[in-house]
Specification:
Blueprint: H1 14-20, H2 23-26, H3 30-46, H4 52-70, H5 83-95, H6 108-144, E1 149-154, E2 157-163, H7 164-189, E3 191-192, H8 208-214, E4 219-220, H9 224-229, H10 232-258, E5 266-267, H11 286-310, H12 323-347, E6 349-350, H13 352-360, H14 366-375, H15 380-397, H16 406-412, H17 420-423, H18 426-431, H19 441-456
Helix pairs in contact: 3-4, 3-6, 3-8, 4-5, 6-7, 6-12, 6-19, 7-10, 7-19, 10-11, 10-12, 11-12, 14-15
The protein binds arginine.
Arginine (ARG) binds next to helix 6.
Length: 460
């Protein structure tokens, strides 16, 4: 008989049994479910709702079930619906009548909200470690390439010369913000909903704070309806995960471009590339492409849960069972992507020569020539116009700004002097951008130091 079978005269239809059961996926929550039940049982004993002896029997029974599940000795039953009822059923089978006291003052509604919060908190902590590793690798790459000149782009057209370090540090800032978003999510989710019951709390004198403390929560939720119907914490996590994936995807898109024959800025290590079944010459950046592709899944997870939640009247509705697969999928996806992107970046070869050649072409120093004129007193707008004309002239000749003679320059404007050639040297252009946040090797080196400190002092 079902744990809730008392008011039913017929058994559940076989199709429904399969349809509404969540044990296939929510068994992943067994650890949190048992952890939560142990805290609940201990608290029930401490406030005298059950005896201390009974509490200990429940706790021991639950601990035994935990060990057996971990050892792969437990077969879950579809008929017992979900992880909560599977564990409770096992408990009663093992320790008898007293097992039936575990659910006193509790509902699966606050239980599942609790489990998901505990689960996400642990997975956020795990994700933090993976993001930190990725950031360290980017910082190391940055340190190695402080003077690896490369073209910077806007509109995918060459814009201004920068360094590989500067480019990598842009991603460091993004991933640091991702960490911050996860930290923020963690802070808001770290409240215990236990005691909310089905939706209207309970008449039992439960010590909500005591159970919360045992489960390392910062406090308890303040409204029993909200306690069981809130999934904001999962949505916040999915939003943070979607933004993280967007960052990974942009970076991977660049790696795909950069490893193409047209760019040849980098070569992926063989271990992080794959071949073609027909074209023998191929070495494809599949890993980076797949990360880019998997971004869609995580966006989908976020959209799915937002959509599940949008029309739900308070409080718990079974629709909310659909939260778990989305969350699990996003957790798996971001963690796998972070795991594989880090060594892919660490092992790729960076081709300094091609990068610095790329930094030179395409008039990337045109802004510097205009700045040169402006520094000598010509209003910037006029300088811009004049340099524009020089660029047009040079591009028709198929030469760069540095290839024009001083006399040609002076024919266009008497402001030009021999020092103009220094001002438009690529290396000079980069080194001169010492402005905070700019690409000069010394500012980027400082940025790397600062970011390392931020990482070391992350309070979680
Ligand atoms: N398996 C359910 C879920 O994941 C647990 C809560 C069920 N509560 C209920 N009243 N049917 O949401």
């Amino acid at each position: 008989m079902k744990l809730w079978g008392g008011r039913f005269e017929k058994t559940t239809d076989a199709l429904v049994e399969d349809f509404h059961s969540s044990i296939r996926f929510d068994q992943r929550l067994y650890k949190q479910d048992i952890q939560g039940s142990i805290a609940h049982a201990r608290m029930l004993g401490s406030v005298g709702v059950i005896s201390e002896k009974e509490a200990n029997e429940l706790i021991e029974g639950l601990a035994g079930i935990f060990e057996d599940i971990q050892a792969g000795k437990v077969e879950f039953e579809i008929g017992a619906e979900d992880i909560h009822m599977n564990v409770e059923k096992l408990l009663t089978e093992r320790i008898g009548q007293v097992g039936k006291k575990l659910h006193t003052g509790r509902s699966r509604n606050d239980q599942v909200a609790l489990d998901l919060r505990l689960y996400l908190r642990a997975e956020i902590d795990q994700t933090k470690v993976l993001i930190e590793r990725l950031i360290h690798t980017l910082l190391n790459l940055g340190e190695e390439h402080l003077e690896t000149w490369m073209p910077g782009y806007t509109h995918m057209q060459k814009a201004q010369p920068i360094t590989m370090a500067h480019h990598m540090m842009a991603y460091v800032q993004m991933f640091l913000r991702d960490l911050d978003r996860l930290k923020d999510t963690r802070k808001r989710l770290n409240l215990s909903p236990l005691g909310s019951g089905a939706m209207a709390g309970t008449t039992f004198p439960l010590d909500r704070e005591k159970a919360a403390l045992e489960l390392e929560f910062d406090g308890v939720t303040l409204n029993s309806i909200d306690g069981v119907s809130d999934r904001d914490f999962a949505l916040e996590f999915l939003s943070a995960a979607a933004i993280l994936m967007m960052h990974l995807s942009r970076m991977c898109e660049e790696l795909v471009l950069w490893s193409s024959g047209e760019f040849q800025f980098i070569t992926m290590d063989d271990a992080y590339s794959t071949g073609s079944s027909i074209m023998p010459q191929k070495k494809n950046p599949d890993v980076a492409e797949l990360v880019r592709g998997k971004t869609g899944r995580v966006y989908g997870d976020l959209m799915a849960l937002l959509t599940v939640m949008k029309g739900l009247p308070l409080a718990y509705n079974k629709d909310m069972q659909e939260d778990k697969e989305q969350v699990f999928d996003a957790v798996d996806t971001i963690q796998k992507c972070l795991l594989v992107v880090e060594p892919m970046l660490r092992t790729m070869q960076v081709h300094r020569e091609t990068l610095s050649r790329g930094a030179k072409g395409g008039f990337t120093n045109a802004t510097d020539l205009a700045d040169y004129l402006a520094k000598k007193g010509l209003p910037f707008r006029e300088a811009h116009e004049l340099v524009g004309r020089i660029v047009l002239h040079c591009s028709k000749q198929g030469i760069g700004l540095e290839d024009l003679n001083l006399s040609d320059y002076q024919a266009l404007s008497p402001i030009f002097e021999a020092d103009l050639f220094e001002a438009i040297g690529i290396e000079f252009c980069v080194r001169a951008r010492k402005i905070k946040g700019g690409p000069s090797p010394e500012t980027v080196a400082q940025g790397i130091q600062l970011s390392r400190q931020v990482l070391e002092n992350l309070s979680w």
